[in-house]
Design goal:
3-stranded antiparallel beta sheet; 121 residues
């Protein structure tokens, strides 16, 4: 009598091959996801930096452009002013854009935690 189906060895071989594919593919996929998240975070930072620049220009009386000045602009302030054109998903909402005036035409931007930014005007 002939039996239909797969033997235990055949099933084991299939499971081993699938496991091998997972072991090979997982690091590649994980690295790609990490790289994509870093790219998204950097893109969102760039959007926030441009938004902060626009916010400073609109409120120039409150943010004088003088060398050495440091401004701390919250994401909430940028959002309320309508300066953020997209939904920010990869940066914490309590973060602050720190803008340091290095010279009249050189502004240095950084993302910091809410309590770690001190303004100087």
């Amino acid at each position: 009598m002939k039996q239909k189906g797969f033997t235990f060895i055949e099933m084991l071989a299939v499971v081993v091959l699938l496991a091998l594919l997972v072991v090979i593919a997982y690091p590649i996929v994980a690295d790609q996801i990490k790289s994509t998240n870093e790219d998204l975070t950097n893109s969102e930072k760039e959007i926030l930096y441009n938004s902060a620049y626009s916010y400073i220009q609109d409120n120039i009386n409150d943010y004088p452009i003088r060398t050495g000045n440091i401004f701390c602009i919250s994401i909430g302030s940028l959002s309320q002013a309508g300066k953020i054109p997209v939904t920010i998903k990869h940066i914490k909402n309590d973060s602050v854009v720190k803008v340091t005036i290095a010279s009249d035409d050189n502004l240095i931007y950084d993302m910091v935690e809410d309590g770690s930014c001190t303004e100087t005007k």
